[in-house]
Design brief:
The chain is built from two helices and ten strands. It is an alpha+beta fold. The termini are far apart.
């Protein structure tokens, strides 16, 4: 008991001797504790809810092609072939091959686009079957990828004069 009393006396003497320092230390400790509690609560409030982690893989899907296969009835050899997808494409991942080889370019837009427009630079030749293959490396800005490469086959044929697609007059050399 005496030891406890001696210890208490020493503490009281210490506090009375260094009263200002002790009060400031306790005050700073309280402020630190209050700030720590406050920042923990506000951090929880300010953090956006996290989406659940899923193992499902989202694939990029081809929605439509223009023209619709198998026959491309057009009187114009410079018509586009358009592939439409379900998400905005990453232009750096567009890669395709055409067989038989024809000079083309893929039109990409400055703004995000869901389409690839393939423009023939020398024209589609009549009655030749073309195959356009889009590589599976194509991806969207949301990191969706193609599950498999896409093959699109078509043949350009000129509409007959009775056909509603027949333009009049035809100003193109065949």
């Amino acid at each position: 008991m005496e030891k406890l009393q001696n210890l208490l006396r020493k503490i009281v003497n210490f506090i009375s001797k260094y009263k200002v320092i002790f009060v400031l230390s306790v005050f700073l400790l309280l402020i630190i504790l209050i700030l720590r509690l406050f920042t923990k609560n506000t951090m929880k409030i300010l953090q956006p809810p996290q989406p659940p982690i899923t193992t499902q893989i989202n694939y990029l899907n081809l929605i439509s092609t223009e023209p619709n296969p198998p026959f491309y009835k057009s009187a114009w050899s410079t018509d586009l072939v358009v592939f439409a997808f379900d998400d905005y494409l990453d232009p750096d991942t567009i890669s395709y091959q055409i067989s038989p080889y024809t000079k083309t370019r893929a039109k990409t837009h400055l703004e995000p686009s869901k389409t690839i427009e393939i423009i023939p630079l020398e024209g589609w030749k009549q009655d030749i079957e073309y195959t356009i293959s889009i590589n599976a490396s194509l991806s969207s800005l949301n990191r969706k990828t193609l599950q498999n490469s896409i093959e699109f086959t078509f043949k350009r044929s000129v509409p007959e004069p009775e056909d509603p697609e027949f333009p009049y007059p035809i100003n193109e050399k065949f």
